[in-house]
Amino acid sequence: MSKEVVKVILWEENQKDFLKKFYDLQFVPRIGEEVYLKKEKWKVTRVEHDLEISEINVYVELIKKAKQEKSSNS
Questions:
Q1: How far apart, in whole angstroms, are the C-alpha atoms of residue 10 and residue 47?
Q2: Mean pLDDT of 28-53
Q3: Which one of 37, 42, 44, 57 has the largest count of C-beta atoms within 10 Å of its C-beta?
Q4: Separation CA 35–CA 60 (nearest Å)
């Protein structure tokens, strides 16, 4: 069985901004799963598979941080 490379592209959900492109991931994140990118946590909101061109689009939204920054300044 041959292993084909699938292009996985991550997009920010609301603005549809391109975040980062990965190739040949060991696994694709599932809807609701948290991923860590660009020093921030993101939540996967949608996953689209395009089998014709071997591409997977993963849409994520930024997880808002709680008010932890104030406590670190004291």
A1: 9
A2: 88
A3: 42
A4: 9
